[in-house]
Specification:
The complex is a heterodimer of chains A (341) and B (315). Chain A has helices at residues 2-9, 31-36, 58-65, 82-87, 106-112, 124-140, 142-150, 153-157, 180-191, 215-220, 241-247, 264-272, 311-329; strands spanning 23-26, 47-50, 69-74, 93-96, 115-117, 172-176, 195-199, 224-227, 252-255, 278-281, 300-302, 337-339. Chain A is of the alpha/beta class and 341 residues long. Chain A has two domains: 23-118 and 311-330, NAD(P)-binding Rossmann-like Domain (Rossmann fold, 3-Layer(aba) Sandwich); 123-302, Rossmann fold. In chain A, strand 9, helix 12 and strand 10 (278-281) form a beta-alpha-beta unit. In chain A, helix 6 crosses helix 9. Chain A is elongated, with a radius of gyration of 24 Å. Chain B has 315 residues and is an alpha/beta fold. Helices cover 35% and strands 16% of the residues of chain B. In chain B, the strands form two sheets. A seven-stranded parallel beta sheet of chain B has the order 8-7-6-9-10-11-12. In chain B, strands 2-1-3-4-5 form a five-stranded parallel beta sheet, sandwiched between helices. Classes of the chains: A alpha/beta (341), B alpha/beta (315). Chain A: Residues 1-22 are annotated as: Disordered. Chain A: Belongs to the D-isomer specific 2-hydroxyacid dehydrogenase family. Chain A: Residues 132-307 form the D-isomer specific 2-hydroxyacid dehydrogenase NAD-binding domain.
């Protein structure tokens, strides 16, 4: 009797005392959380356990809370490894605030019966816009021309020299990875009069774009390559010396996937020596480090891994993250499972 | 035709120059300080039977009066604002321009400018090159896909822009002299209404007396602090002073400009802004299109002097 009265005196939610809510571990705040603010992620179905706010050493912190941590919210900056999962036997769900899952040991998750969700298609439009924007910029030298104007060269030197800017119409653009973002890129390229080709793990039978099972063959038939696939063991350094050679001196590359898909050292060498014609890059092997040689080049456009950083995408991502967590804790189907175990 | 005197008003394109030299008796106005008076000191005015002009130096009344045997003006441009059309018509002078071959490139540039401004592609590049990626948060860009696009002038270029923007999921509306029956886009008979309704306003019409400063303070204010202006038309379409103050005061969200009132001068205040993208009038300056434009100029001249129909006549 006394216990019940004590409970009813609590000013919190009658159904769940704060300490009863399942805990979602965050090792480091994903960019979307920092930018939009934690308030938008709150729910009465779970609560966040913020590792970076604790004075305890991480290992100790995790061990102390292991029993109540049922999910992990992560992003590229906070990888989910098998070792981490070993410390947290109650985890059943990993939610990443990104499209990429290369920072998650998917095999370990599968083995441990842990579900994984990602950003689904919330980034597809923005990712495609960024890729196409970079392609137009590289071919038409938009950023280089903007620099030319700002440096006063239009007045002192005259018109921007003709001969280094190219039309989009009729260009053969090879898309590496025809997932959500790749499909949106293809749609936009068609409207620009480009010819779309692609390579993917599997041919998409519902599409009529020419398919190449080998990325080198794709490069040989392309004027431009757009990298928008996932980073996996198979795709690591997939864009290598042979691919650049096949792409050729007039070819350009756009990368909105992951830096490690490209052999960066080789790419820089090709650009410096004019063995490919240009590059638009949103990602790099060792962010935020960008090879200094690229700063000297007029035919390269550099973006600080921002391809999907718009308020609109972030709001959609926030809704999706919350939606996945709430679905999980209500025993409803996950909204954007990568692996649903 | 090698004896036919053709005057080129300024250096436009080496390939065009070479072609003109090959087929005609080419005179280059810039060898006389770009002055007709000076040209006439050393050349007979009646030798010139054709003039090739562009958006820099066109064909005005003075030039027409100086060359009594002028038969045809072949402009290395689609825009005709630098040509005294009335005078040409009066004197029975043919005029040809270069439509269609440059439509795609100009439309592509419009899209490139939108992405450059909204997604801050150019500003990001600066940021990375000066090593700021590590230091500070750059802030978010704005999404392009799905935004509302308003086009001023739904001609060839305006239509090409609309088709591209549709692939980005944008809603399209336009303002034009008259409604286009074939266009499936919302028509506004009033440019203020268009500017109020859209987030991205693109100038794609011809420059005439009516469209001079068509983008004025009222239109800019209607577009607003979240709106962006893209100008791939002519500098004189926009009241440049008003544009600059609107950008500086934050009354306009951003601008992508390929043209200016007094090229190659660009208002100094714009040079330091991160929400503008500035291009040095390059709308059609790709290798492929410049050559195609040059070929069209040559073809029109050859057709005229063979008494054949012009390929792309204006008058």
């Amino acid at each position: 009797m006394a216990d019940q009265e004590e409970e009813q005196d609590n000013t919190g939610d009658q159904n769940h005392k704060p300490q009863d809510l399942p805990q979602v571990l965050i090792l480091k705040p994903p960019p979307v959380l920092s930018v939009i603010g934690e308030e938008s992620f709150l729910s009465n179905k779970y609560q966040f356990l913020k590792a970076w706010e604790s004075p305890l050493p991480l290992h100790q912190f995790l061990t102390a809370h292991a029993g109540s941590i049922q999910a992990i919210l992560c992003s590229g900056a906070s990888p989910v490894t098998d070792d981490l999962l070993q410390l947290l036997p109650s985890v059943r769900l990993v939610v990443t605030a990104s499209a990429g899952t290369n920072h998650i040991d998917l095999e370990a998750c599968h083995r441990r019966g842990i579900s994984v969700t990602n950003a689904g298609n919330v980034f597809s439009d923005d990712g495609a816009d960024a890729a196409v924007g970079l392609l137009i910029d590289v071919l038409r030298k938009i950023t280089a021309s903007d620099r030319y104007v700002r440096q006063g060269l239009w007045v002192s030197e005259g018109d921007y020299p003709l001969g280094s800017k190219f039309q989009l119409r009729g260009k053969r653009v090879g898309i590496v990875g025809l997932g959500g973002i790749g499909l949106e890129i293809a749609k936009r390229l068609e409207a620009l009069g480009c010819n779309v080709l692609y390579t993917s793990r599997k041919k998409k039978t519902f599409l009529s774009y020419p398919f190449y099972s080998d990325v080198c063959q794709l490069a040989a038939h392309s004027d431009a390559l757009i990298i928008c696939c996932a980073l996996t063991d198979q795709t690591r350094h997939m864009i290598d010396k042979d691919v650049f050679s096949a792409l050729g001196k007039e070819g350009v590359i756009v990368n909105v996937g992951r830096g490690a898909i490209v052999d960066e050292k080789e790419m820089v060498r090709c650009l410096v020596h004019g063995e490919i014609a240009g590059a638009g890059l949103d990602v790099f092997e060792n962010e935020p480090d960008v090879p200094k040689e690229l700063f000297e080049l007029d035919n390269v456009v550099l973006s600080p891994h921002r391809a999907v950083f718009t308020p609109e995408s972030f709001m959609a991502l926030c809704e999706l993250v919350v939606g996945n967590l709430e679905a999980f804790f209500s025993n409803k189907p996950l909204l954007s499972p990568v692996m649903d175990v | 035709m090698k004896s036919i005197g053709v005057l080129m008003t300024c250096p436009m394109h080496k390939y065009l120059e070479q072609q003109l030299e090959t087929h005609f008796n080419l005179f280059k106005l810039w060898h006389c300080n770009s002055s007709i008076t000076e040209f006439l000191k050393t050349h007979q005015g009646n030798t010139i039977r054709a003039v090739v002009g562009d958006t820099n130096i066109g064909v005005d009344a003075e030039l027409i009066a100086s060359f009594p045997n002028l038969e045809i003006v072949a402009s290395y441009s689609v825009g005709l604002d630098k040509i005294d059309l009335r005078k040409c018509e009066e004197k029975g002078i043919r005029v040809a321009n270069t439509p269609d071959v440059l439509t795609d490139d100009v439309a592509d540039l419009a899209i490139g400018l939108i992405l450059g401004v909204l997604r801050r592609i150019c500003a990001s590049d600066v940021y990375v090159r000066i090593g700021k990626w590590k230091d500070a948060d750059f802030g978010l860009a704005t999404k392009f896909s799905g935004k509302s696009v308003g086009i001023v002038g739904l001609g060839r270029i305006g239509t090409a822009i609309a088709k591209r923007a549709e692939a980005f999921g944008c809603s399209i509306s336009y303002f034009s002299r008259s409604q286009k029956p074939f266009a499936n886009y919302k028509f506004y008979s009033n440019i203020i209404d268009l500017a109020t309704s859209c987030q991205i306003l693109i100038v794609a019409c011809a420059l005439t007396e009516e469209t001079r400063h068509i983008i004025d303070r009222e239109v800019i204010d209607a577009l607003g602090p979240k709106g962006i202006l893209i100008n791939i038309g002519r500098g004189a379409h926009v009241d440049e002073t008003e544009l600059v103050s609107a950008l500086l005061e934050g009354r306009l969200g951003g601008a992508g400009l390929d043209v200016y009132e007094n090229e190659p001068e660009v208002p100094e205040e714009l040079l330091g802004l991160g929400n503008v993208v500035l291009q040095p009038h390059v709308g059609s300056d790709t290798v492929e299109t410049s050559d195609a434009m040059a070929d069209l100029v040559i073809s029109n001249l050859k057709a005229h002097f063979s008494n054949k129909p012009l390929l792309t006549p204006v008058i």
